[in-house]
Amino acid sequence: MPKTTSRSSRRQPKRSRLKSKQPGPLSRYAFPFYSSLPPARRPPHPAGNSGAAFAKAHLGPFPSKPKGNSSFALADILGAAGVKEIETVGSLRFHSVGDTGVLGGNSQQAVADAMSADFDVNKPAANPAFFFHLGDVIYGHSKDVGYRDEFYRPYHKYPAKIVAVPGNHDGETFTGTDPKPLGAFLANFCALTAVLAPQASAAGVFRETMTQPGVYWMLDAPFVQIIGLYSNIAEGPGDLEGASGDQQQITWLNSTLKAITASRKGSVRKALIIGVHHPPFSQGGHSGSQAMLKQIDDACKAAGIGPDALIAGHSHSYQRYTRNLTIAGKQAQVPYIVAGCGGHTDEAVGTASGQVDGDHTFVKSTRGYGYLNIVIDAQHLQIDFHLVLLPGGAVPGTGKTLFDSVKVNLATGTLV
To answer: Could you report the per-residue pLDDT of 279-317, keeping only the tens digit for each?
Structure first.
């Protein structure tokens, strides 16, 4: 009988090496950033004075320039008739979660099946319009092959289109198998035309490639505008810059937010959601990305606009924060949500709810696996988190449980 091997059991290819300078003096610890001293007071080191500084010096590049102005309309992926159905019913609904890619196990499949159960073929207008993936679609090497069993096969029963931003693992490279940063992501999500994806076909699944304009984008839909951002390849923190100080995404974010501000004058105000892989705030698994948050805040302040919600992945748990902001002279309460629990591991959250830290409050969290169900109409934005699998694999009696819900009044910017 021929011997078979799984993708995960093959000989691991070499990861592309980070360029490094001459090592510094010997230290007790494996890296020089483990210190109680603030970065400015640490001894000089060729690797920099902090983990964040080291990560910034080793960011990955952006792909070639995105198509057009990096914006697309929901009709471009659903068709005019599908959008008309959503407009007629008076609300838009979509799913979102990140960190799904896993080879084997039942966590990703359980979440995918629970999301699939939200559809009714006889009620198309009420069905979720799409799934917004928050990054880390695929982990490890041989990502092009991985799409078969870590993406197309788990979602073979999921009927909606899927859009995405890349996570740090989507952008990482491996010598031999993944030499091009974001190569597999671009092939599956940023194709020039929608065609049957080769890895879907290899799995006996019909799903076409997505045609989003790039790895960062703005989706204009009924009732909502969604900005998707690429926060690069570091385990942390996230960063909107590219390699060698490339500012293209930050420049684009500034111009896009200003265009949204201008479009609101004399027209119906849509909700604004920002989605990014690395979370600005996190109390479990991975830390928050304060420098990236400042990049987003600076662009929002320059445009005189802010998000009605920010959703992220990366930390493999569910966490909700409420941030109190002043946007264009008006007070607002903005949910910042971490939902990196679509299938890959699960992580504990170490801080008690209710903790206030500066302008934000840690509201609620849980371990386990699940997904966001987001509904927007002309007045409100509501985000529900459905818990599907508990730690250890125990399944709630109903298959999924509504764990948390938050609702934003779009007129007042306050939570209902």
So the answer is: 999 998 788 999 999 999 999 999 999 999 999 999 999
CB proximity list for 401: less than 8 A, separation 6 or greater = 386, 387
Check whether the bond before 23 is cis (ω within 30° of 0).
no
The CATH number of residue 206's host domain is 3.60.21.10
Q: Closest by alpha carbon to 293, among 246, 325, 271?
A: 325
DSSP helix/strand/coil, 334: strand
Asked whether 208 and 197 are in contact (CB, 8 A), the reply is yes
Residue 2 lies in a domain: no
Q: Report d(CA 139, CA 101) in Å as an integer.
A: 6
By percentage, how much of the chain surpasses pLDDT 90? 73
- As given in the structure block, the two tokens for residue 342 are 């679509």
Instruction: Round to whole Å and give the CA distance between 166 and 187.
Output: 12
Dist CA 218 CA 208 (whole Å): 21
- Which residue is listed with tokens 């091997």? 5
Q: 313 and 99 in contact (C-beta within 8 Å)?
A: yes
CB of 299 closer than 8 Å to CB of 259: no
Return all residues near 167 (Cβ < 8 A) that are at least 6 apart.
98, 99, 134, 135, 136, 137, 231, 277, 313, 314
| Residue 175 domain-assigned (yes or no) | yes
Mean pLDDT confidence for 29-55: 78
| Residue 415: other Cβ atoms inside 10 A | 14
Give the pLDDT confidence of 79-137 residue by residue, as tens digits: 999 999 999 999 999 999 999 988 777 899 999 999 999 999 999 888 999 999 999 99
Report how far residue 309's alpha carbon sits from residue 326's, in angstroms, rounded to the nearest whole number.
14
How many Cβ atoms from other residues are within 10 Å of residue 84's Cβ? 14
- Both tokens of 293, joined, read 């948050």
Any domain includes 189 = yes
Residues 337, 408: Cα–Cα separation, whole Å: 13
d(CA 146, CA 150): 6
DSSP H helical segments within 227-334, as ranges? Answer: 248-263, 290-303
pTM above 0.85, yes or no: yes
Report the domain count for the chain: 1
Which range of residues forms the domain containing residue 333?
66-415
Q: Is 75 helix (H, G, I), strand (E, B) or coil?
A: helix
Angle formed at CA 339 by CA 194 and CA 246, multiple of 5 degrees: 65
Cβ proximity of 312 and 279 under 8 Å: yes
Residue 20 lies in a domain: no
DSSP designation for 59: P
